[in-house]
Amino acid sequence: MPLSPAARVFALLKRLGAMLYDALLLVALYMGLTFAMLPLTGGEAITPQSTPVLEHLYRLALLAITAGFFGLSWTRRGQTLGMQSWRLKLLREDGALPTWRDALLRLSAAVLSWLAFGLGFLWILVDAEGRSWHDRLSRTRVVELPRGA
């Protein structure tokens, strides 16, 4: 169903708002991981020069936290906490909740959308259905839930 230009702008703003909420939650989780790893370094920063193996494990743990946060949220309820706040829900094109494969594909495609200077997200403004690159690539869509849902 085609969206008006105003509806596409509003959809983009709501999605950016949800991403901001989720980014704050992810930062808190990252801080918890960092705090948990401090005893392993004697309270020093984890750097490739001082602890190369630990630095790689740390990066993998950050990636796992990110994938786990989005994967669990999207596959269980179709919503992250940020999406719940803005009454947004992620669904597959067939209307079902995303699978883990869908979630990981979407997350990877979202990285591509950001790496292209955010053009993948701005695509919402020109797409008739208000879908981003990662929506299209993962065959998912973000829908707005009615008030009180």
3D architecture notes:
The chain is mainly alpha-helical and 149 residues long. The protein has one domain. It has six helices and two strands, in the order H-H-H-E-H-H-H-E. It has a two-stranded antiparallel sheet. The model has no long low-confidence stretch (mean pLDDT 95).
List keywords for this structure.
149 residues; mainly alpha; two-stranded antiparallel sheet; 6 helices; 2 strands; 62% helix; elongated
Structure at a glance:
It contains six helices and two strands, in the order αααβαααβ. The chain is mostly helical and 149 residues long. The protein has one domain (5-144).
What's the arrangement of strands in the largest beta sheet?
1-2
Shape: elongated
Tally of separate helices? 6
Helix content: 55-70%
What Rg is obtained from the alpha carbons, in whole angstroms? 17 Å
